Amino acid sequence: MSDHADEAFFRHLCQHAGVALIATDVQLRIRFWNAAAGRLFGSSAEAMLGEPLISIVPADRRVIAKRLLHRTADRGEINAFEFPHRDPAGTPMFLAVSLSPIIDEAGRTAGVSVCVRDVTRRIETERALADASKMTALGSMAGAIAHHFNNLLGGLVTTADFAQTSDDPAVLTRALRSVVTSLTRAGRLTTALLAFAEGERTDSETEEVTNIVRAFIARLEPRLRQCNIRLETILTPTSARLSAKRLQTILDYLAANACEAMPGGGTLTIELTVPPESGDLVLRISDTGFGMSEADLRHAFEPFYTTKSEGTPGTAAHPGLGLAVVHGIVRSLGGNVTLCSSLGQGTVCSIRIPGNQPTG
Ligand code: ADP
Ligand code: MG
Description:
Number of helices: 10
Order of helices and strands: HEEHHHEEEHHEHEEHEEHHEE
Helix content: 40-55%
Bound molecules: adenosine-5'-diphosphate, magnesium ion
Strand content: 15-25%
Strand order of the largest sheet: 2-1-5-4-3
Distance between the termini: 76 Å
Number of strands: 12
Structural class: alpha+beta
């Protein structure tokens, strides 16, 4: 084929490709607009040539689209973004745009090549899947809450029923004591659920993080000695302050998990560091316990997920809520929490919290 025939062939190929193909010059003005682009946007090539490419993007997506376009034109990067769109018949759809630089024979960027695809089906499937898994998660959470409250209510009804048939003051006192115990457990359960949802409502005074951790360790040590657990600590002094109650709750739950994973003893390590590059607070609680399976790691932060049988020390008040509560509190502080574990070796829970917390 001659050069001329070659060019005509490629022009024809691009003109009639099944996906929308657009090319711009260095000023990001449209210089090629194929038939599929015409069908998608309802405008002919004559109308679009010379227009800024950004005009095809909805106004609320232009800032990010512009930034990506310039990065492709100026730095030769390949970029992609998606946006909602209505076709000429008004049908809502989603478009995926990929941008790549057009490099001329001298190696200079001569514009941007733009490929636009209809990804409505993929986005709808992703949304349906997210909705379905959200509903499944909500369903199992509602089920677990109902289960725990039913157990408590069942006990209360039986006790009250028994008490009303007796006029023995000793029986009535025992019944009342049992009612108070059940109601206290119900209260703890709702408090834990609130902490999961909102990261602990009843806030407290802030204190220096190092002091909170030190005081916690002092309270924990006698219990560790009883359980044959050795303690190692690395505490970097910091003047950062946090709500004492929130940090204590985090430490309580994580230390409880670590101790429960070492029934025959082991080593618990508590580290507080402040990496200078970020100024964040990093808290790491490690144990040399039995570790977690892949499935446990996947589900551990879900409310009511537990591998402990009822009656295991420390889990009676709110089984399966420890890590969910820790997650809720850390999220409310703008941080993140991760678990790293290997079966038979132990577990590390790392928490990163921004050091400059808003005051008040
Ligand atoms: P609970 O301790 O009441 O079971 P959590 O939310 O605190 O609830 O933990 C959920 C699950 O994650 C536990 O049942 C356990 O299987 C696993 N887990 C959490 N921390 C550890 C740890 N340090 N070592 C081993 N398993 C752990
Ligand atoms: Mg726990």
